[in-house]
């Protein structure tokens, strides 16, 4: 019973993480609080992958909702045996938890790439990725951030928001991974039998 409650708590935790991911991703479209850069397509290309809005956001909300439904003790039985029903619910829970790892993992990778690439900004040479060839070294050298003249404070903006997205999606990966381990332990450690007896279905 405790493992079911634990699984439910973990699934519920995915909801605020997904909502924050959506919010943070939306903020990336408004550097310095201005919408003009998004309308003129002067944003880093990784923003348009919708990693926080779609994958770590909406898709994770769907996954969390399905997992909460699967953990409901009042679920209908998929077959005559309660043992059989729990087995299938566990397998479905593992599948959707694995999907959650894939969705949040996508956001994690894209956000990390966006962070390392740096912002698309106006320099003395025009609009470009000023730090694209630095392999992320600009992250620890704030003296070079002044190369970006516009949008104002765009380097800090990108670093903070992409870092938050990395943290949020990383937590989602951990939560879903823990859920997979919990469900797997129910099968392997014999919380209930996973063998369908003849005549049950």
Could you name the key traits of this structure?
mainly alpha; two-stranded antiparallel ribbon; disordered C terminus; membrane; Transmembrane 4 L six family member 18; transmembrane helix; transmembrane
SSE topology:
Layout: H1 2-27, H2 36-39, H3 51-70, H4 82-117, E1 120-123, E2 126-129, H5 154-188
Antiparallel strand pairs: 1-2
Helix pairs in contact: 1-3, 1-5, 3-4, 4-5
Family: Belongs to the L6 tetraspanin family.
GO cellular component, one term: membrane
Membrane topology: Multi-pass membrane protein
A few lines on this structure:
The chain crosses the membrane at residues 12-31, 46-70, 91-116, 159-182. The chain is 60% helix and 4% strand. By secondary structure, it is mainly alpha-helical.
Overall shape: it is: elongated
Ranges where pLDDT stays below 50 over 5 or more residues in a row are: 192-201
- Count all strands and give the number: 2
Record the strand order, biggest sheet: 1-2
**Which value, in Å, is the CA radius of gyration?**
22 Å
Strand content is under 5%
Structural class: mainly alpha
Overall mean pLDDT stands at 87
- Name the helicity range: 55-70%
The number of helical segments is 5
Task: Give the helices and strands as they follow along the chain.
Answer: HHHHEEH
Largest sheet: 2 strands, antiparallel
Q: Distance between termini?
A: 25 Å
Subcellular location: Membrane
Keywords: Membrane, Transmembrane, Transmembrane helix
Membrane topology: Multi-pass membrane protein
Family: Belongs to the L6 tetraspanin family.
